[in-house]
Prior knowledge:
Layout: H1 36-43, E1 50-53, H2 61-65, E2 83-87, E3 90-100, E4 103-111, H3 114-121
Antiparallel strand pairs: 1-2, 2-3, 3-4
Amino acid sequence: MGNGDTTPQADASGAADMNPQPTSFPQVDNHGAVPANKNIEFVLDIPLQVTVQIGSTRMLIRELLQLGQGSVIELNKLAGEPMEVLVNNRLVARGEVVVVNEKFGIRLTDVVSPNQRIQQLG
């Protein structure tokens, strides 16, 4: 067990030589609670997938295989209906499509309440 090796070594009987060491943990204040501003700082840099869904449809495999360039897929949304904004596949808002600097964007018209977002998690 030299050279900083902490792997248990087996003796002649094959049993591992286990010398348990006490574990120490840092002191925790406020009964383990972390101030709210530190909690939010911890999650602010987590990346999320944001998707704007313009509509969807169901089709048979036969129909999918017949698609080619120029094919049109009819979606379940009507023209002018709000688009859905999904974060990690969860609905968080609805909005209308806009063009910003020659790129598509979405102007939010309705944001799902925090309570409804929490209910979606369950």
